[in-house]
Specification:
globular, mainly beta, about 45% strand, disordered C terminus, about 220 residues
């Protein structure tokens, strides 16, 4: 993204936060689920073939956004190998997430999937419960998340007293609309990998039917 445009987006969003700061108090979540500098790398397979790779990075330095400390998270994804020949994917997502409230202030979406292009900038105002994109300004429920911030917020949830079947609600924003991104707790499981055996928490995202998956429990 052009640096001048990015600076303008950050400046306008920060001004929005500052001007609304006296309206209501945001929640405070204490956690040690992740920290600045964390990098997660993923490899996507289709059968035995490598299909893509993705990275999620929490930038080492916190951002000051409307006098609030924020994480700056960047996610990238791309197709690789033979898949890159017939369906090229080059995606980039950014989220500026409030460190204390674990809520997004800015969401940047750059999608190029087989020639299908999306360029979207969204600024959130959690004091007035609104989200503004280039196309619309909409009212949002309290504590609404974007696609990236939802992942990091979910990591802060305390599952220690959860029972199988418990559902943890999350309101998600995408394409100027609100949809549920709820998490269903399944239980605990030991997973054996090349790196060793790990005790894991197992949960199932409650997906939106019709967007990608036929059923809202198609992923675990």
């Amino acid at each position: 993204m052009n640096l001048r445009i990015r600076f303008l987006i950050l400046f306008l969003a920060a001004c929005t936060i500052t001007s609304a700061a006296g309206q209501k108090k945001l929640r405070t979540l204490n956690h040690n689920a992740f920290r600045p500098g964390e990098v997660l790398k993923f490899r996507i397979h289709y059968g035995f073939m490598d299909a893509g790779e993705a990275t999620l990075e929490v930038k080492p330095e916190l951002k000051n956004f409307g006098n609030r400390d924020c994480y700056h998270v960047v996610g990238t994804g791309r197709s690789v190998g033979a898949f890159d020949w017939f369906f090229k994917v080059r995606d980039r997502y950014e989220s500026v997430i409030d460190k204390d409230a674990m809520l997004p202030w800015l969401f940047i979406r750059r999608v190029n999937e087989g020639g299908y292009i999306i360029n979207q900038n969204v600024s959130f105002n959690h004091f007035s419960d609104s989200a503004k994109s280039e196309k619309a300004t909409i009212s949002i429920p309290e504590n609404t998340q974007d696609l990236v911030s939802a992942f990091y917020y979910a990591r802060t949830i305390d599952f220690s007293n959860a029972k199988e079947g418990d559902v943890f609600p999350i309101n998600g924003y995408l394409d100027d609309a609100i949809f549920p991104m709820n998490i269903k707790y399944i239980g605990k499981e030991e997973i054996k990998t090349k790196m060793g055996t790990f005790r894991c928490i197992k949960f199932r995202p409650m997906l939106v039917e019709g967007r990608v998956f036929k059923d809202n429990e198609d992923m675990t």
